[in-house]
Design goal:
Structural class: alpha+beta
Shape: elongated
Distance between the termini: 48 Å
Helix content: 40-55%
Oligomer: single chain
Number of helices: 24
Strand content: 15-25%
Number of strands: 17
Length: 640
C-alpha cells in the first residue's frame, strides 16, 4: 500500500473534521460507531450529588438517544481490538445472556476492564473523575440486576435493524446538566494516550527513534514511531518483518513514522475503512486513490468523487456490484487507484491481504467494465446466435427471451472465492492461461452431478447449464478484449459441397452451423476445436432422440461424467453414429457427418493430443449450444 496516499487522504479528512469543529487530537480519534447511518445509544444515567467538598453517585434511569454524524463525538467512542474492551466506556451493545440475572458481557467488560483501565491513567485533575468512576463501578455492581433489567427493557423495544446498530455508554447528571463522556478529562486522556502510545508500543515493547527522516513525509523529525499502521496487517512479531537483528525496540528503523504523519495515517485508514471499502461479488476490498502529482486540492476532488460514488451505490441496492468500477471509469486519468482485497478477522479485526493491485487508471476501468462488456453484449455470436426463448414456471405459453448481459460476476462465477489470480491478471492486463480457464469451466459443468450444488445454484432452472456455457464463451471474448488472453484467431469458413439432405424430424440447420463457425473464430482459434465441438453437437442429437423415444438419455452414461480425453473421442463418435443409425437410417445427418470429416476425422491426431479439460469443455459446448442449429420441426430436446 502507498502510505503517502493514505496520509494524503487523512489530511483531507482531517481538514473536513476541522471544519466541523473537531481539532483536538482526542476529537480526531473519536470514531463514529456506525459510520454513515444514524444509530441509537442506550445509557444508564448516574446523578453526581455534590455537598460541600464531597460527592456521591446515585443511579437515576436509563436514557436512549439518537446518534449521528453531528453528535457521535460526545460519546467519545474508539474501537480497540484487544480483549480489554474499547478505549472508553462507550461500546457496541451486546445481547443479554438471560432474563433472570440480565447478564451482559459488554456491561461486565465496562465494569471489570474499562473502568479499572481508565482509573490507572496518570495526569493532573483526574482524581475527582477517578472517584466518580469508582463509585459508578461499585453502585452498578450492587444494583446490576435493576440497572441491567432497565437496559434490557429499553433494548427490547427496538426492532431488529435498530438492535444491530445500537451502542452502550454511560452519562451523568451534574448540577442540572447532562454530562456526556466527551466532557470527562480522563476520557480525553485515554484517547490521546491511545493515539500516541498505539504507534509506539507493541506487546509492551517501546520503539521510538530520534532525529531521523520519516518514511512518509521524508522530513527529519525529532521523534519517530515504530508501530504506526492504520491497518492490522503490518506486524513486527514475525522475524521477516524486523530489521536490526530482530530487535523489536528498533522497529522504528524499519518503518519510521513521525507524530504528524501518524495522525494523518490513522485518519486516512479510518476514512478508507468507512468510506472507501466495498464488496466486489462478496469479496471485500478497499479502494485507495492516488494522484500522479502531490496536490492537496486535487486530492480533495478525488475524495469528493468517491463520497459521491458511495451515495449512489448505497442508494440503489439493485446496482451491479461492479457499479463502483463503472463510476471510476467515467473519470480522466488524473489519478489512479490501488485495490486491496482482504479478509477481516471477526474477532481481532485484523485484515489478511488477499491481493493488492496497484495503480489502476480510470481508462483501465473503462476498458474492463464498459468497453469489454459492450463488446461482448453486441457481438454477433451473443446477439444473434446464442439467444433463445425460456419457458417460465413449466407454462409453455409464458416465455422469456434470453440474451447475455455480461458483467464481471460471470467470470467470477467460475472461480473459487479464494482465487484472486485471475482478478489480479484482468486488472493488470497480464496473460491468463487458456488451459486454466478450460479447467475452471469444465469443473463447474461437472457439478451437474453434485446434488448440493444443484439444489443451491441451479434451483430448478432447466436452462442453467446452457447459460453457463454461454457465459464461459463470453468470458473468453471478454478476457481477450481486455488483453488477458492472447488468442490469434483464424477464420474457418466451413465450406462443403452442398448436397440435398432429406429434411426429417431430427434435421440440423447445417447452413446456420457453418455461419456460427465462421463468425466464432475467436472461440474456434484452432481447427481441431471445431471438430470436438461438432462431436458434442452429434451427441446432443443422439440424446435428444433418446429423450423423444425413451424419456431418458442412457447414452450420457458413456461420457464418463464429462471427463473426456483424446482416447475417448473416437469411441464416442463411433457409438453416437451407431445409435443414430439404430433410430434412423445410415444417411441420417449426412451433412453434419461430412463436415465432421474435415474438422474431426482428419484432425484426430491433434484432437488426441489436446488436454482433457480442453476436449471436455469444447465437447459440452457443442452439447449445450446444439439448439442453435435445430430445424423448426425438431422437437423433444431435454435441457435438464
Amino acid at each position: 500500500m502507498n502510505d503517502r496516499a493514505v496520509t494524503a487522504i487523512g489530511r483531507v479528512y482531517k481538514e473536513t473534521l476541522n471544519q466541523n469543529g473537531l481539532r483536538e487530537l482526542w476529537e480526531l480519534y473519536s470514531e463514529n460507531m456506525f459510520p454513515g447511518v444514524n444509530h441509537t445509544i442506550i445509557s444508564p444515567v448516574f446523578n453526581i450529588n455534590r455537598q460541600d467538598d464531597s460527592l456521591t453517585v446515585s443511579f437515576s434511569h436509563v436514557d436512549i438517544r439518537e446518534c449521528s454524524e453531528d453528535s457521535y463525538v460526545k460519546y467519545a467512542y474508539h474501537k480497540d481490538g484487544t480483549r480489554s474492551g474499547d478505549i472508553t466506556f462507550t461500546t457496541k451493545f451486546g445481547s443479554f445472556e438471560d432474563t433472570t440475572h440480565y447478564k451482559n458481557k459488554k456491561v461486565d467488560t465496562i465494569l471489570n476492564l474499562v473502568i479499572p483501565k481508565l482509573r490507572k491513567l496518570e495526569g493532573d485533575g483526574l482524581d475527582e473523575e477517578k472517584e466518580i468512576l469508582l463509585q459508578v463501578q461499585a453502585l452498578w455492581r450492587e444494583k446490576i440486576v435493576e440497572i441491567n433489567r432497565q437496559l434490557f427493557d429499553l433494548y427490547s423495544t427496538l426492532d431488529k435493524e435498530k438492535k444491530s446498530k445500537c451502542g452502550l455508554s454511560v452519562v451523568f447528571f451534574d448540577r442540572d446538566e447532562m454530562i456526556f463522556p466527551n466532557r470527562f478529562l480522563i476520557i480525553k486522556e485515554a484517547l490521546n494516550d491511545h493515539a500516541i502510545e498505539g504507534s509506539k508500543v507493541f506487546n509492551h515493547e517501546l520503539s521510538v527513534g530520534e532525529n531521523a527522516k520519516c518514511s512518509i513525509c521524508f522530513e527529519e523529525k525529532k521523534e519517530l514511531h515504530g508501530f504506526a499502521s492504520p491497518f492490522k496487517y503490518y506486524t513486527v512479531d514475525k522475524r521477516g518483518y524486523l530489521a536490526n537483528y530482530f530487535n523489536i525496540n528498533l522497529a522504528w528503523k524499519n518503518y519510521p513514522v513521525c507524530s504528524d504523519c501518524t495522525t494523518d495515517f490513522y485518519l486516512g485508514g479510518r476514512f478508507i475503512t468507512n468510506e472507501l471499502s466495498y464488496s466486489f461479488y462478496d469479496r471485500p476490498f478497499m479502494a485507495i486513490p492516488k494522484l500522479l502529482t502531490s496536490n492537496h486540492e486535487q486530492m480533495k476532488k478525488v475524495v469528493k468523487l468517491f463520497k459521491k460514488y458511495n451515495s449512489e451505490v448505497n442508494s440503489n441496492v439493485k446496482l451491479f456490484e461492479d457499479r463502483i468500477m463503472t463510476l471510476m471509469a467515467e473519470q480522466n486519468n488524473f489519478f489512479n487507484v490501488d485495490l486491496i482485497f482482504f479478509e477481516r478477522d471477526s474477532k481481532t479485526k485484523a485484515i489478511k491481504l488477499k491481493t493488492h493491485i496497484e495503480e489502476i487508471f480510470p481508462s483501465r476501468f473503462r476498458k474492463i467494465f464498459v468497453e469489454a462488456r459492450d463488446y461482448v453484449d453486441t457481438h454477433i455470436i451473443f446477439k444473434e446466435f446464442l439467444t433463445f426463448e425460456k419457458e417460465i414456471e413449466k407454462r409453455t405459453e409464458q416465455k422469456k427471451f434470453y440474451r447475455i448481459n455480461f458483467n464481471f460476476g460471470k467470470l467470477l462465477s467460475f472461480l473459487n472465492k479464494e482465487d484472486y489470480y485471475i482478478i489480479y491478471s484482468v486488472f493488470n492486463g497480464t496473460e491468463i492461461s487458456l488451459q486454466l480457464l478450460y479447467s475452471q469451466f469444465i469443473n463447474k459443468y461437472r457439478k451437474r452431478y453434485d446434488k448440493k450444488f444443484i439444489k443451491k445454484e441451479v434451483n430448478g432452472n432447466k436452462y442453467y447449464w446452457r447459460e453457463m456455457i454461454i457465459d464461459a464463451m463470453a468470458v473468453i471474448y471478454f478476457l481477450n478484449y481486455t488483453g488477458s488472453l492472447n488468442i490469434i484467431s483464424q477464420n474457418y469458413e466451413a465450406k462443403m459441397q452442398q448436397e440435398t439432405e432429406q429434411k426429417s424430424k431430427r434435421a440440423i440447420n447445417i447452413e446456420r452451423l457453418q455461419e456460427f463457425i465462421k463468425e466464432n473464430h475467436l472461440f474456434f482459434d484452432k481447427k481441431y476445436k471445431v471438430g470436438i465441438y461438432l462431436l458434442g453437437v452429434l451427441v446432443r442429437l443422439v440424446m435428444n432422440t433418446q429423450w423423444s423415444e425413451l424419456k431418458s438419455t442412457p447414452f450420457e452414461k458413456k461420457l464418463k461424467g464429462y471427463k473426456i480425453s483424446g482416447k475417448d473421442v473416437g469411441n464416442i463418435y463411433v457409438e453416437a453414429l451407431a445409435k443414430l443409425q439404430q433410430y434412423y437410417d445410415i444417411n441420417a445427418y449426412g451433412n453434419l457427418r461430412k463436415l465432421m470429416t474435415e474438422y474431426f476425422n482428419l484432425l484426430m491426431p491433434e484432437i488426441k493430443a489436446a488436454p482433457s479439460a480442453e476436449i471436455s469443455f469444447y465437447f459440452v459446448s457443442g452439447i449445450e449450444t446444439q439448439f442453435i442449429f435445430k430445424q423448426q420441426s425438431e422437437t423433444g430436446e431435454n435441457n435438464e
